[in-house]
Amino acid sequence: MGYFQKHPLTAGPYRVIRKAPINVNAENRHLFEKEVERSFNAPNAYEIHNCYLNGEGLVFQNGQIVEESLRHIRAKKPSKFQKLKHTLGALRFTSKRKQTIAEPCMWITDTWSLGYFHWMLDVLPLLLFLKEAFSDHTLLLPSEFQHLGFVDESLKVLNIQPRYIYQQDLIHCEQLIISDMLAPSGNYYPESIELLRSRFASKFFNSEIVPSDRIYISRSKASRRNLINENEFTEMLINHRVQIIHAENYSWMEQAIIMSRCRLLIGVHGAGLSNMLFMPSGSKICEIRGQDDARNNCYFSLASTCGLDYYSHFGEISEKSNDHIGDIKISETTIEEIDSFLTYNSQSK
User: Alpha-carbon distance 54 to 99, whole Å?
Assistant: First the structure.
């Protein structure tokens, strides 16, 4: 028979209060109102003995799917039909690659974790938090992750060696930890972010890279969410000694080093802004996002959690049907606002 035990990860439900954008005004205040104060349920880790794990992160014990593992496929309140579907899907592999892992393990990734933002801000904070309580447990990762440079580099910095599991594997685990998320994606448990920032803080100073303390992350090489009038905008930025970078041109470690020295970061809403995680407290973030966008507040929330000053600027979205992928055009007025902002911050140094 299996063994199942719940371990609370926090003292109980918790509340976060966030600092409003520095330049918030009457016209855009409503876009942030629901995010200024949030409450979250207490997350748990689940210790499961004598169970089976498949390549999707689904866990089976005593012939039944462990409902808590459905979090790994981002399932909410699954129906009996969905549970049966996943159970039958797992059974396809029972005649294929079976193996037993004797050492205690943990599985915490989900179907979104391959993305840079989700790896850095959903997975790594949770991983460090769990390692505090389950230090001897081996991290299991899907095989696709071993080809991602940011996964390999970030785990090496944190001195964590994962073990990779393939899609066709069915693993018998003598002891396995799975977990709730510490907070819904785009939200953060403050202590876990503080822990991650402290672990990274001392890692990036012995380097020959000498970047600017003012950075603009260009998305001109990205397939979506580009800044339509970027040439006009970057011409102004260069006049204020802002360094223009493309995140694609740098390794994860190089990006971390650059951002650890950055005191003012400008960028269109996108994964590159996740790197504010490395910036010193008190630094400034200017995010350019779609007009009337009240959904994508993850970087506003992150800036507050990291103790950074957050400024929001808005532009017209070219793809009206999807404000998450459409290109953005900012007005002359917005360019002038950011110009004035940079001028003021040069004078106030």
Answer: 11
What residues form DSSP beta bridges with 44? 8
What pTM did the predictor assign? 0.91
Q: What is the pLDDT of residues 72-96, one digit of tens each?
A: 988 666 666 666 666 665 555 554 5
**How far is it, in rounded angstroms, from Cα 91 to Cα 85?**
10
Q: pLDDT tens, 223-262?
A: 888 999 999 999 999 999 999 999 999 999 999 999 999 9
As a whole number of angstroms, the distance between CA 122 and CA 116 comes to 10
* Distance separating alpha carbons of residues 93 and 107, to the nearest angstrom: 19
Alpha carbons 320 and 202: distance in angstroms, whole number? 43
Nearest Cα neighbor of 336 from 195, 209, 208, 239 is 239
Of the candidates 120, 58, 113, which has an alpha carbon nearest to the alpha carbon of residue 86? 58
Task: Give the tokens for residue 205.
Answer: 């100073």
215 vs 269: CA distance, rounded Å = 14
Residue 287 has pLDDT above 80, yes or no: yes
* Of residues 160, 195, 217, the one with CA closest to residue 305: 195
Site of tokens 């007025």: 333
Q: Is the dihedral of CA 64, 69, 73, 78 positive or negative?
A: positive
Q: Annotate 290-308 with three-state secondary structure.
A: ECCCCCCCHHHHHHHHCCC
